[in-house]
Write a structure and sequence with these properties.
Among the domains are: 47 residues, RecR Domain 1 (Helicase, Ruva Protein, domain 3, Orthogonal Bundle); 92 residues, Dna Topoisomerase Vi A Subunit, Chain: A, domain 2. Helix content is 41%, strand content 10%. It contains seven helices and six strands. Strands 4-3-5-6 form a four-stranded parallel beta sheet. It has a two-stranded antiparallel sheet with strand order 1-2. Helix 1 packs across helix 2 and helix 2 crosses helix 3. The structure holds zinc ion. The site of zinc ion has 8 residues, from loops.
């Protein structure tokens, strides 16, 4: 355990910053020092923004997204095509798809994927509301935007079975060659998935 270099308030700040994803103890010290140096321009507004957001963040009861309003901004966006519903595991995936800008549809956030090893079963995911939404909103296509992991694909198959009665088109994202990717750098699993998912030129 290294000796403390500052009083408890600063040490606590460093320890909390170190818990953020992508930051270790060294970068946490760097971030803390940056905040301390810029305490008027950055630390004070950040502290205020954190307090402000903390008091307002809610989970959308419709789709499971996080926002400061319920229903969320995406659910109330009238320009989105409601005949399509995009299913994602987490809010981070929703944000990633929105950054890509390739879809203009509402989402449904599951809150994870099925994982027998981690003890995550169907009752732990936002599945009942998904079935209700597909029926009530007369959805024509459900896009399963889930990871290409074993758990992600298990979840995709489970949802496909769950929606069989709903007579809705269920699609999933293609798996294969990344944009800008060279073939000889790909693993065998990705290459064979890319061959199976080949499309007409
Ligand atoms: Zn929503």
């Amino acid at each position: 355990m290294p000796r403390a270099v500052a009083g408890p308030e600063i040490e606590r700040l460093i320890q909390l910053i170190a818990r953020l994803p992508g930051l270790g103890p060294r970068s946490a010290r760097r971030v803390a020092l940056h905040l301390i140096k810029k305490r008027e321009a950055l630390m004070a507004p950040l502290a205020a923004a954190l307090t402000d957001a903390l008091g307002k963040i809610v989970e959308c009861r419709r789709c499971g997204n996080v926002d400061v309003c319920d229903p969320c901004t995406i659910c109330t966006d009238a320009s989105r095509d409601r005949r399509t519903l995009v299913v994602v595991a987490d809010v981070g995936d929703l944000w990633a798809l929105e950054r890509a800008g390739a879809l203009n549809a509402p989402y449904h956030v599951l809150g994870g994927v099925l994982s027998p090893l981690d003890g995550v079963g169907p009752e732990d995911l936002n599945l009942a509301r998904l079935v209700t939404r597909v029926h009530e909103d007369e959805v024509g296509e459900v896009i399963l935007a889930l990871g290409a992991t074993v758990d992600g694909q298990t979840t995709a198959h489970y949802i496909t079975d769950l929606l069989r009665e709903a007579h809705v088109r269920v699609t999933r994202l293609a798996q294969g060659v990344p944009v800008g990717g060279e073939l000889d750098y790909l693993d065998e699993g990705t290459l064979s998935a890319a061959i199976r998912a080949r499309t007409q030129m």
